[in-house]
Structures are given as C-alpha cells and as structure tokens.
Amino acid sequence: MEPTAKNPDPHHIFIDEVQGHQRRWLKVIQFTSSSTKAAAIMLAAAIVALVIANSPFFEPFEEFWHTHVVVGVGGFIGEMSLAHIINDIFMAVFFLLVGLEIKYEMTVGELTNIRQAALPIIAACGGVLAPIVIYSLFNATNPETSHGWGVPTATDIAFALGIMALLGNRVPNGVRVFLSTLAVADDIIAILVIAIFYGQSPSLMWLAIAAAILVVLVLMNRAHVYALTPYMLVGCLLWFAVFMSGVHSTIAGVLLAFTIPTGSRVDLQKFMTWSGDRVREARAAYVETEPVTLQKDYMFTVTRLSSVARQVVPPATRLEHMLYPWVYFAVLPLFALTNADVSFLGGDVLAMVSSPVFFGVFFGLLLGKPIGILLFSFLTVKLKIANLPDHVNWIHMLGAGILGGVGFTMAIFVANLAFPEAVLIADAKIGILSASLLAGVIGFLFLFMQAKAAERQGISYVSASLDEVVRQTAGEEAADMADDVVLGCGDEDLVDDVREVLEAEGGVAEFVVHEIRDEAEAEEAEDVTGTRP
C-alpha cells in the first residue's frame, strides 16, 4: 500500500508525533508532482506579466528584470541582467530536465521500440513541417521576418498534458502516451533547430573547448562515475564554453543530460541478499529499552544500509526527481513572468495583430500543428507503418493534435532568439499566447466531448502499474483516479487480475471499465473486448 495524503504512513513506520508532518509533506510532494498545478502556475505567471505590462507599473517592472548582476573572480568580471540569467542559465536547467526526459524515453521509454514510437515521431515531424509551411506563406518574401519559421514548431508539454489531465480517466492512456512522446520528439527537433539555426556565428576555439569538456563527461560516464556532483561541476564548465562559443548556452543542458548515467552503481541482485542480511543484523542489534543514539552496532548497520540504498537509484533518475519541482514551479513561471510581458499601451494593436509574423505564428500553431500531426498520423496508419494506440480513435487524435498547438514556453524561447527587434518579438508573442489559448480550449473541448460520449456509455479507462512509472506527464492524476476505481470497487478478484496482467505486460496495463446500469448493459458488456463489468 502506497502512502497518501489521507494515510501518510500505511505501514506505521513513523512515530505518532510526526504523522501530521508526514501528511503535510506528502501534500507538498503531490502538489509539486502535478502537471495540472504546474500548468496553472505558469498560466498565472503569464497573466500577471500581461497585466503588469499593460499597467503603469510596466516601466519599473521591466527595469527590475534588466538589473545587472556582477560577479568577479580575480581579474575576471562577469555581468548579466536578471532576464538573461533566467533565459540563459535557468533555462539551461530546464533543457537539462528535457534532456533527461529524452534520454529516459530513448533508453527505457516509448522511443526504444521504433515501431511503437513511429506514430508519434512521424506525427511530430508533420507537426513541425506544416507550421513552417504556413509561416512561410505569410513571411517567405520578407527577409526581416522569414527566419522566424521556427517559432510555431514546438509543443509545450507541461501545458498540453496539464490540460489533458483535467479529463482524468475518461481519456485513454494511449492519448497521453502519444502526446507526451510527440512532445519529446518535438523537443528533440526544437533543440536541433535552436542549435543549428538560432545561434550566433560560432567561435571555433570555444566550440573545441566545449567538445573537449564533453569528452571528459563521456569518459566519466564510461569510467562508471555515478556521483552527481562531478557531473554538475564539469557541466558548469560546459555551459560556460557553449555560452562563449555563440551556440545558445541552453544546449549545454541537453548535452550534459546525455552523459549522466542511467544505470545503478549497485548490483541489484546482490543488493537484495545483502540488504536482507543487514536488516536481520539491525533487528538482532536493536535494544528496545535503550536510546537509539547509544546503540552503536544498530546505528552502524542502518547507516551502511541507508548509504548503499541511496545509491541504488540511478543518477539520472535522482537528478530528474530533484529538478522537476524546481523547473516547473520556479524556472518556468519565472520565464513566463519575464517573457509574456506584451504591452498594448501606446502601440498600434491593429498593426500587431495584422502583421505577417502574428499571422504566421498564430495560424502555424492553431492550424499547422493539428493539420501536420493528423495528416502524418493518418498516412502512417494507412501505410501500416504503425497502428493507433489501444482504445484511441481519430477524435482523440484530433484533440491531441490541437493540443499540440499549445506552444507557450519553447515558442517564446525561440521567438527571443529568432527576432532581434522588440516589435517583431511582441508580434510573435501575441500570436503564441492567443494561439496557445485557443488551441488549449478547443483541444480540451474535443477531448471533453469524446469523454462525455464515453461517460454516457459508462466507460472509464484505467491505467495501472506495479511501480512508479508515471513521468512528468498528465498520467499521475489519471493514475490516482485509476487506483480509486480499481481499489474502490471492492472486488478482490479484479485487483488480483490487474496484478496478473501487469506482470504479464511488464508493469503497465490499461483496462476499459464499463459501468453496468442494467441487465441489458451487462449482457452487452460481455461482448466488449478488454472490459470487465
């Protein structure tokens, strides 16, 4: 039984006096693991930025973010504004998390099975190409704006999956997996676009230094260095070299992520036996009547066990779990606060919303994304390269494709790189914000209508797992709801059946639960494949 906010200590491990602390801590963990909460905070930060940008406080607000921070070491003096610290340093941490997510998917996730990953990967390519075509239709003949084609190509995974999480277990898990894998493939393409097309003229000397540092990181990986601190220290040097080279410094985060080990330094098979021996030693050494601080043998044994147990978790996994709440509840809201500041005061609003940049970005995200995703998905299925995910229909795919047009974070990031003029950046931001808002609402409505149709039939989609397999997607909220459905049904045979299927399926499975309202439905449910009344 897993701990919950209502029952933080199901196995009664902690003393009674700290149960309240445990309950509050679990609420914090659940909050900072929620994609819907992360999306809501980012949205709130963007709204605050828009309100301030169109108020008398905009000038001091802007001056604050342009405050320079000066750091000096010996004869070296570095200077950077707060806004650049967020965009160049903090966002490198975001890209580090993105890189860890991509590496996970490529090593043990959805991108390991090329046939299974073919549909979202090919759909992602379509979701990149179609917006480029639409943007170019409006801007190809204008040399000042034509290079902004990369702005409407990226999907914001946090917002898109946060919206999907609102639908809970009324949406098949295949839709979430499709959209999250598509967003990961989208991120890979966006990273390549930023590295190749939106950097300055690179310095070959600094590129060579960055390459040498990267070789050091790879050698550390090959030498089985599993401590995170050396990677972080050398990663800072890599960031500086990439920053000085002219290639955008956030790429250093992705490169660093790919060098961090995903394996454990502990032999897991031997650990099972060794840890069991240590537990028995601790039990034999423990004296209930003595203060724990006086029990040296007991303390020595449990300290050894704790030290080794911490090292069982791979470094990449430990780092990802550490970074997630900071990135999604601090870095990205700060990025939204400093970059969603579109001011309409004293400007020609009509000119903003009628510029070719606005049209290209707006229609590229709102129309280009779903058109490209749906078209390439349809061709992939018709050519029998891949099939639709289980329990997923084309209405689900259309809703997911429209949500692909939510391009907030990465799109604004690329806009800042693509346009040197503040006016063009503002035009692009208006297109991004308005298209993302409409795409989020329309995509949600499409999936909501399909969910209501499933609800009328009494159908729920239950995803279950043997372990913690939910990533930084909308799956965590759905998984909690799934647990309520399975465990709350009071059918022990069903719970046993679920575990059997999980073991056969490698730890993850989805069930279609059909709620029976009368005898006629009970007879019909018996004919539905994969359902259990």
Automatic annotation (TrEMBL):
HAMAP family: NhaA (MF_01844)
GO cellular component, one term: plasma membrane
Protein name, entry field: Na(+)/H(+) antiporter NhaA
Transmembrane spans: 38-57, 69-97, 117-137, 149-168, 175-198, 204-220, 232-260, 323-345, 357-379, 394-418, 430-449
InterPro entries from the UniProt entry: Na/H_antiporter_dom_sf, NhaA
Gene: nhaA
Similarity remark: Belongs to the NhaA Na(+)/H(+) (TC 2.A.33) antiporter family.
Recorded GO MF terms: sodium:proton antiporter activity
Keywords, in A-Z order: Antiport, Cell membrane, Ion transport, Membrane, Sodium, Sodium transport, Transmembrane, Transmembrane helix, Transport
Subcellular location: Cell inner membrane; Cell membrane
One of the GO BP terms on file: regulation of pH
The keyword Membrane appears for this protein: yes
Pfam family, one: Na_H_antiport_1
Gene3D superfamilies cross-referenced by the UniProt entry: Na+/H+ antiporter like domain (1.20.1530.10)
Principal location class: membrane
Key word NAD present: no
Membrane topology, record value: Multi-pass membrane protein
Function: Na(+)/H(+) antiporter that extrudes sodium in exchange for external protons.
Catalysed reactions, as listed in the record: Na(+)(in) + 2 H(+)(out) = Na(+)(out) + 2 H(+)(in)
Taxonomic lineage of the native organism: Bacteria, Bacillati, Actinomycetota, Coriobacteriia, Eggerthellales
